[in-house]
Amino acid sequence: MTVNDLADKLGLVFLTGQEDAQKQVSGCYCGDLLSFVMSRAKSGDAWLTVMGHLNSVGVAALADLACIILTENAPLSPDALERARQNKVIILQTEKTTFECAVAIAAFLKI
Amino acid sequence: MTVKLNFKIDGNDFTRAGEASGEVKRVLKELGLPSDVIRNVSIALYEGEINMYLHANGGQIEVAVSPDAVGMVLTDSGPGIENVALAMKEGYSTADDNIRSLGFGAGMGLPNIKKYTDHMMIETEVGVGTTIRLKVYIK
Fold first, then answer.
1. Which of A65, A68, B20, B28 could form a Cys-Cys staple with B7, CB 3.0–4.6 A?
2. ipTM (interface pTM)
C-alpha cells in the first residue's frame, strides 16, 4: 500500500506535496519520544505522532520512514514544513486520535 | 580508497541539528552502500549529533568510509559523562524539561548508538569532554 492509498482510505490531509506519495507503507509506529522512534520504528513505517517540529522531520528522513501522520490535528511548524519539502518527507494530518488511526492502518495493512 | 567527511557542530543553533547526519546519509547513498548500513550509520550519527547539541554545546564529527566499514569519531568539549555504565542504560537521562519537551531525553541516545553500530568506544573525562569512536561494517 502506498502513502497515497493510505491517505485516500483514512481521509488524511497532505501538509506536504504529493510528489513522493507513491512510497510504500509496510507498517506503523506510534510514539512521541524521538529516540524511541529512531530505535524501534522500522523502515517503511507510517509514524503516528503529535510532534510536528523540525526534529521529527530529521528522524523520519534518517530512519527511512514512509511518512509522518500528525494525529488529533497536531500542528506542523513552518520550519518543519520547509525542511520536510527539502528532505522529501511526506507529512499528513488527521483529526483522528493516534489509537483510531493505528487501528485503521492495521486493518488496511492486515497486520 | 577512503572517503572522509568532517563537520563542525555549532551547539548554539539547534535548528541545524541533524544536518550533518543528513549529509552523511546523502553521501553514503551516492557511494552506493547497502541500505541497512546507511540506516544504521544515520541513526547512530543522529543520536550522537543530537547529544552534542543537548549536552556539549557542539563538537566535531569525522566520518571515514572505507571499503569494509564506516568509521565515525564524535568529539566534544562538553561536561563529560560521570558514569558511562549508567548512561548506557536505556531510560537513564540527565536531560532537563526543555529537552524533554522537544521529544528528546528518553535516555535512549547512547543505547541506540550501541544498538546500531558494530563497535563503540567511549573516552570521557568530567570537565574535559567526550570522544565516541564508532564503526559499522559493510557486509
1. B20
2. 0.82
The pLDDT tens digits along chain B (139 residues) read 899 999 999 998 888 999 999 999 999 999 999 999 999 999 999 999 999 999 999 999 999 999 999 999 999 999 999 999 999 999 899 888 888 888 888 888 999 999 999 999 999 999 999 999 999 999 8
**Which positions 61-80 of B are in contact with A (Cβ < 8 Å)?**
none
**Can you tell me which residue has the cell 547526519?**
B21
Pick the CATH number of A3-109 from 3.40.50.970, 3.40.50.300, 2.40.50.90, 3.40.1390.20: 3.40.1390.20
**H or E element that contains B4:** strand B3-10
Q: Give chain B's radius of gyration (CA, Å).
A: 14
**Interface test with chain A among B9, B39, B46, by most A beta carbons within 10 Å:** B46
- Put simply, whether A61 touches B (Cβ < 8 Å) is yes
Distance from A79 to chain B by nearest Cα, in Å? Answer: 9
Domain harbouring B72, CATH code: 3.30.565.10
